[in-house]
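Archive maintenance. Older records in this collection stored only the sequence; we are now back-filling the structure field for every entry so that each record is complete. The fields below show one back-filled record exactly as it appears after the update. Entries are processed alphabetically, and Isoprenyl transferase is next in the queue.

ARCHIVE ENTRY
Title: Isoprenyl transferase
Organism field: Helcococcus bovis
Length field: 246
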Amino acid sequence: MDDRNLIELIKNSSLNHIAIIMDGNGRWAQERGFERSKGHSAGMQKVIEIIEVAKKLEIKYLSLYAFSTENWKRPQIEVSTLFSILNTFIKNELNRLIQNNVRLTIMGDISKLPYSSRKAVEYAINKTKDNNGLTVNIGLNYGSRDEIAYGIRNIVSEIESGNLNQNDINETTLSKYLYTSEIPDPDLLIRTGGEKRLSNFMLYQIAYSEFDFPKIYWPDYGEEEFKSSILNFINRNRRFGGLNEK
Ligand code: FPP
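Back-filled structure field:
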């Protein structure tokens, strides 16, 4: 199918937001006799490719799980490699993101990031904040349970300062106090690498998302695979708990 037809299909579907758990970098590298860091660098190239494809296909939101609250448990050398890859990504790609009208947003507590990464991320957020094309939302020091605790702390402080009445709290209220307050829920969640688990990713937001678990590692996932994930989604029938056809 050519891109024009696919864009048309996407437009006629409910697909606005794709979230991706980019898993398998380490195994990809180890199976080739490389250091794990090489898998993460290859993973960064795929981030660049998938952003380009998402933009081309006129997807509105793309969320990427880059560093979880649990990833601090990895060897220190791997943690610092991941942040240096993030810094390289911003240094090399920011201009292209700006030119492509991409808005960068972050979910997670970035106050705990290494200073250089925090500064780079804040700079990129600020530089792209007025863009209104594709939103690329990156999870950094992100964990869903941590996010829900963060949301509840904010809600409690709003109640204490008299800005919110506890009887008015409903599911929409909580979603407004999460990191993703400005972003609609994902329609499609993709996890590469063959594992079928959520690993503390966007648990509140994916209540009605469709899931796709391609068996290949993230550094092997590219334009063709991304398009098949999208076509799988389009061929499904989402009912949101009701009976009606979409
Ligand atoms: C999971 O693979 C991947 C990560 C923990 C890091 C993801 C990071 C990138 C793709 C690169 C940089 C991203 C950006 C946004 C610039 P794993 O290491 O758990 O793989 P394994 O399960 O095979 O060990």
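Update note: The CA atoms of residues 89 and 140 lie 14 Å apart. The radius of gyration is 18 Å.
Entry marked complete.
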